[in-house]
Specification:
The complex is a heterodimer of chains A (482) and B (562). Chain A has one domain: Ribonucleotide Reductase, subunit A (Orthogonal Bundle), CATH 1.10.620.20. In chain A, the strands form three sheets. A three-stranded antiparallel beta sheet of chain A has the order 2-1-7. In chain A, strands 3-4 form a two-stranded antiparallel ribbon. In chain A, a hairpin with a 2-residue loop joins strand 3 and strand 4. In chain A, 47% of the residues lie in helices and 7% in strands. Chain A starts with 8 loop residues before the first helix and ends with a strand. Chain A contains 13 helices and seven strands. With 482 residues, chain A is mainly α. Chain B is α/β, with parallel strands linked by helices. Chain B folds into two domains: 216 residues, 2-enoyl-CoA Hydratase, Chain A, domain 1, CATH 3.90.226.10; 252 residues, Alpha-Beta Complex (2-enoyl-CoA Hydratase, Chain A, domain 1), CATH 3.90.226.10. In chain B, strand 15 and strand 16 form a beta hairpin. Chain B is globular. The chains are: A mainly alpha (482), B alpha/beta (562). At the A-B interface, helix 10 of A face loops of B.
Chain lengths: 482, 562
């Protein structure tokens, strides 16, 4: 750790925020950086700190600069501070400050609310690195191994992005919060991460791909809504983070797509027509489609919880204060203030699920979640096309929003994936049909074997159609330390 | 004027302060030897009024009535309990304080009454610690916001989980444009002795303070990691248990349901009657002295349990006062009368004095002290009429001294052969029942002239007749048969004609002369500041913070400082 104490910040930290001239941030970073590297070494990918990984580094925000590929040891990754270029005369696109010039400094009255938003977003970034730190040991290929490391270093950079905002704009409190982002630990009994889903383990690669598809997609929606913020530096930093987040979605969607493809192809080759012949399918060394559907149920429902309560005062306050907008706010055609409009919300009314019109301001979370669900559905459609192409009779479906919820309207009830409300006995007798059982987990775990020969893949996942950075199939994406 | 009255739930027409653990909807009381756990697990739907839900362990008066009942029962029914662990039954939240939507839709009178009662409950928690050695340890796992933290402030020891998110806060000002209503500000400065500038930061920071800083700033007593919480709680419970003087082998008494019969204009209890004269806006409470001499021994007192006269009377008086406060807003004056044998009343006082080390006698005295304070804090004109056959002796004489005016009859009345009006002082009048200002009612009465107290001190046990009592300054006026009816009628009619607000303010000022205590400050500041802020447009106007809370829209403030 001593190696990085004397860092020349002008060269090692790619940035477009004029870091060398910024005494306030430099001073804060000098204290924070050693702690970060320490955190990365203890909580980053376990056993691969010395490996040379073919990684993309963002060195500037222009199209040429944000995807520089090269081999690098992860602790030496050049985590940078990059904000999307400032838009001239940007106007606040929503809320009570709609139409006013975007803020370049934090308005005092919103300081606490804004800090809370930044801290919650920031806390998820290192959390996923911690959750995924053991995956390298069971990577199904060097290609996939590189992908998880790419996701990890970029989550690290996203932490930097949030820490920069905290250190630059939130004074002493911001520095303390930045420090605490390094103190909390995913799943730790004493210092857990702030949100529930980020304290769950990521035990296997199917979980990882589900996580990057569903949970990182929540992250994307949150970033999209913060990218609308009236606080311009936050908007700019989130806009740039979204370009990287797209890769995480890609890893998830193609990871599951390749798993489905491999399963369907193996079934075809073995002449198995019925996807529910689970044992026969499993004997082929691939993951049966019903189990993938169960994992989908689990991860989708956990991710819905991340949106918070359907009707939320906090979300209403943040929108009204022009701090956190809606998905693609500027493309929505309405008054962008929502002081008198309504939005339909699914609620539990006298034991039935009903659509109720709520004031649109307090239904902001619901609106974002609906956009999220539509975005998820598009991914499912593409998976279903893969199944169709191979010619297996199966369709993936998103469960009803009332299914398996811990937060919001439906937390007190049990519902089937169809949305049918169940009594406790009916739920208990059927839940293993819908959610992964221990046996399912054990089976998936049994397939998790590390494959490190370039160009080779584990039995349960198909190779990608194209390599990263257009590299050939047998490219050595990770050079493991001897 | 017409503030829309909110409807009580379940078709109730009055707020009832009587409950018992079998009816609790919000608390779980578990007693395990010397340690009791009082778990707050508020039923969102179990509201006192219609129109709001009690989310996140927030509370309304109904929740607090159960809390007050639980504390009372721990004192009387479980004398072996030395420590109460006050905890939350909900994950990630201890208590979010008074329910904001309930407050936003409540009448001003209900808000004031609600705050008064909840304050009395919290003072009761402190009284249990001070008088009975029944200590409370508050375990905060999650957020304790506003009234939630104020509840913690009333306990003896605050433990906060150090998990990076559990926090204590008083967000009333930044979030709601009001002040903490249950003594939060006073306890932060006077009890916990938080430095004033830090208190300023704390009370303007909506999200509050967590972790180590909460300890450094004296807001909590310790922070504990989640994984060691149970161990740490058990250790603290043992320490406090060792300090308690409560009787390990004490056998409790059951606080059985009150005998209470309500008719249109009266409530009949076993030891007192309440009569409403609604046209003249009066309520008359007549207390009845004991029918039999005190029992022979402390054991016999325990056997009598809730039927023991002083306990029966004080429980009934408590209920009667609370009922008038919460349900009879139009009552301008409460008139105290009594009937019975003063010698018997004194005999009971002497019995309690002789057994004052016994846990039950101690609890009964403390109960009387709290109920008399409740009387002091009741915003109705208080009048004592000392008439023929009355028994204002010792403890009951406190009601005369608690009154804003007292009238005593000289001599006999035509055609009435009841014993002459008399007032009798006892030891208990000189310190056993302090007012919220820390002084006895007699000491508060004779602030200018300690000698007057000395004079009064001499005739302990003597049956003082009206003129003597007036000369000693123990009653306002002594009147004879000829003047009696008319003087009192004129006084009460005049009283009912004054502004109810101004009278409330006047009486509260005059009742609490002399020094301030934490308790007196809490009530005075509640009345002076919070109740003023609660009326202002910045809080309750259409664009005020309470009205706008939860809509996402920012309140608009009148920015002029008053």
């Amino acid at each position: 750790m001593s190696e990085i104490v004397n860092v020349d910040y002008s060269t090692t930290i790619p940035n477009n925020v004029n870091l060398t001239e910024d005494r306030q941030v430099l001073r804060a970073l000098e204290r924070w950086h050693p702690g970060y590297i320490d955190w990365w070494r203890t909580m980053g990918p376990d056993g691969f700190q010395e490996a040379l990984v073919y990684l993309r580094t963002a060195v500037s925000v222009d199209p040429k600069g944000w995807a520089k590929f090269d081999y690098i040891k992860m602790p030496q990754y050049r985590w940078g501070i990059l904000l999307a270029p400032q838009e001239e005369d940007r106007k606040i696109p929503f809320g009570r400050h709609y139409g006013e010039p975007a803020w370049q400094e934090v308005p005092g009255e919103y300081r606490a609310m804004l800090r809370r938003l930044v801290v919650i977003q920031g806390d998820t970034e290192p959390a996923s690195v911690e959750q995924q730190r053991h995956l390298g040991k069971t990577a199904p290929s060097l290609y996939d191994m590189r992908n998880v490391f790419q996701v990890n270093v970029e989550e690290g950079r996203h932490l930097w992005a949030m820490v920069y905002i905290l250190q630059k704009y939130f004074g002493r409190d911001g520095r303390e919060e930045a420090e605490q982002l390094l103190q909390r630990r995913s799943g730790d009994a004493d210092k857990p991460r702030m949100l529930g889903a980020f304290n769950e383990a990521t035990p296997d690669w199917l979980s990882f791909h589900m996580f990057t598809f569903f949970t990182d997609r929540d992250g994307k929606m949150q970033l999209e809504s913060l990218a609308q913020s009236g606080f311009d530096p936050l908007s700019r930093t989130c806009r740039f983070m979204l370009t990287e987040e797209a890769h995480h979605m890609f890893v998830g969607e193609t990871g599951i797509g390749r798993t489905i493809q491999r399963t369907c192809e193996a079934m075809k080759a073995a002449g198995i027509e019925d996807p529910s012949e689970i044992n026969k399918v499993r004997d082929l060394g691939v993951i049966d489609l019903p189990t993938i559907q169960k994992k989908l149920h689990l991860h989708y429902s956990l991710s819905l919880d991340l949106f918070g309560s359907e009707v939320s005062t906090n979300a209403a306050n943040a929108f009204n204060a022009s701090l956190k907008g809606r998905f693609q706010e500027t493309k929505i055609e309405d008054d962008h203030k929502l002081e008198s409009s309504t939005y339909p919300v699914l609620k539990l009314v006298d034991g039935e699920i009903k659509r109720v019109d709520e004031p649109a301001l307090t239904a902001i979370n619901m609106r974002l979640r609906d956009d999220y669900t539509a975005d998820c559905q598009r991914g499912l459609d593409r998976w279903n096309k893969i199944i169709d192409r191979v010619g297996v009779a199966f369709r993936f479906q998103l469960p009803h929003v009332a299914f398996h919820r811990q937060i919001g309207e439906f937390k007190e009830v049990d519902a089937a994936p169809s949305g049918e409300l169940l009594d406790e006995a009916a739920w208990n007798s059927q839940k293993e049909k819908w959610l992964p059982s221990k046996d399912d987990g054990d089976f998936i775990q049994s397939l998790m074997r590390q494959v490190v020969e370039p160009g080779k893949f584990a039995t349960w996942i198909a190779p990608p159609r194209v390599g990263i950075d257009n590299k050939p199939g047998d490219f050595e994406y990770v050079k493991l330390a001897a | 004027m017409a503030e829309a009255e909110r409807k009580l739930n379940n078709g109730n027409s009055r707020i009832d302060f009587q409950t018992d653990p079998s009816k609790y909807r919000h608390w779980k009381l578990a007693v395990d030897g010397e340690v009791a756990t009082l778990l707050m697990d508020v039923d969102e739907k179990g509201t006192l009024f219609e129109g709001y839900e009690l989310k996140l362990n927030s509370y309304d008066l109904g929740v607090d009535i159960e809390l007050a009942d639980a504390i009372e029962r721990l004192r009387f029914e479980h004398p072996q309990v030395k420590v109460i662990l006050l905890r939350s039954g909900k994950p990630r939240v201890f208590c979010a304080g008074a329910n904001i939507r309930m407050l936003a839709g409540a009448t001003h009178a209900h808000k004031v009454n609600f705050c008064k009662f909840t304050n009395e409950t919290r003072n009761g928690i402190e009284d249990a610690s001070e008088v009975s050695g029944l200590f409370t340890i508050c375990v905060i796992n999650g957020t304790a916001a506003g009234g939630g933290y104020e509840l913690a402030l009333a306990t003896d020891h605050i433990m906060l989980v150090d998990d990076g998110s559990s926090a204590v806060s008083l967000p009333e000002l930044p979030l709601l444009a009001v002040l903490p209503g249950t003594g939060g500000l006073t306890r932060v400065t006077d009890k916990r002795k938080v430095r004033r500038d830090r208190a300023d930061v704390f009370c303007t920071t909506e999200e509050g303070i967590k972790g180590r800083r909460a300890v450094d700033w004296r807001l909590v007593d310790e922070v504990v990691p989640s994984s060691r919480l149970e161990e740490a709680v058990a250790k603290r419970a043992r320490e406090f248990t060792a300090r308690s003087s409560r009787p390990a082998a004490g056998k409790g008494i059951a606080l059985t349901p009150l005998k209470r019969e309500r008719s249109a204009d009266a409530v009949e209890y076993s030891t007192l009657s309440v009569e409403f004269e609604r046209a003249s806006r009066r309520a008359t409470i007549t207390l009845r002295g004991p029918e039999a001499p005190p029992p022979a021994s402390a054991e016999a007192m325990v056997d009598a349990g809730a039927q023991f006269w002083p306990l029966r009377l004080v429980r009934e008086l408590d209920d009667a006062i609370l009922d008038i406060r919460a349900n009879e807003f139009d009552t301008a004056a409460i008139i105290f009368k009594s009937s019975g044998d003063p010698a018997q009343v004194l005999a009971y006082d002497q019995f309690l004095e002789a057994n004052k080390k016994h846990w039950l006698a101690r609890e009964i005295r403390a109960f009387w002290k709290r109920v008399l304070k409740r009387v002091d804090l009741t915003s109705r004109s208080l009048v004592a009429l000392v008439e023929l056959g009355s028994c204002f002796a010792g403890t009951l004489a406190e009601l005369v001294f608690a009154s804003d005016r007292s009238y005593m009859l000289i001599g006999q009345r035509d055609g009435d052969n009841k014993p002459p009006a008399s007032l009798v002082l006892a030891e208990v009048n000189f310190g056993a029942y302090p007012m919220p200002n820390g002084l006895s009612r007699l000491a508060s009465r004779f602030l200018a002239d300690a000698g007057a107290l000395e004079k009064a001190n001499r005739p302990i046990g003597e049956m003082l007749e009206a003129e003597t009592a007036e000369n000693l300054g123990l009653v306002t006026f002594a009147l004879d048969d000829i003047d009696w009816e008319d003087e009192i009628r004129v006084f009460l009619e005049e009283r009912a004609s004054f502004s109810s607000d101004a009278l409330t303010g006047l009486e509260a000022n005059l009742r609490f002369g002399g020094p301030e205590t934490m308790e007196s400050k809490i009530f005075a500041r509640l009345s002076a500041w919070q109740n003023w802020i609660f009326q202002r447009a910045n809080a309750v106007g259409e664009e005020g913070a309470l009205k706008r809370y939860g809509t996402g829209q920012k309140p608009a403030f009148d920015t002029r400082r008053v």
